[in-house]
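Q: Here's a chain of 69 amino acids. Please give me its 3D structure as tokens.
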Amino acid sequence: MTFQTLAFRRARSRVASPARDNSVALILLVMMSLVFAPVIGMHLVAAFAPASLPSTLMTRSAGTALPPG
């Protein structure tokens, strides 16, 4: 067995199959979405939430002056 044959066999065995690449990509996608989806969701809620609480909005729009608390 020559060095060239041995090098070819080692190089061929290191090539990953496309199915393995797809499963790694799927695992990375699931892990990243589990990590970053709550962070993005919290930022969206903080960006689009009303400036005051809903109870404060109701008492202001009721027309009658209710004492706070």
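Q: Can you summarize the key feature?
A: The helical segments are 3-14, 18-48, 54-61.
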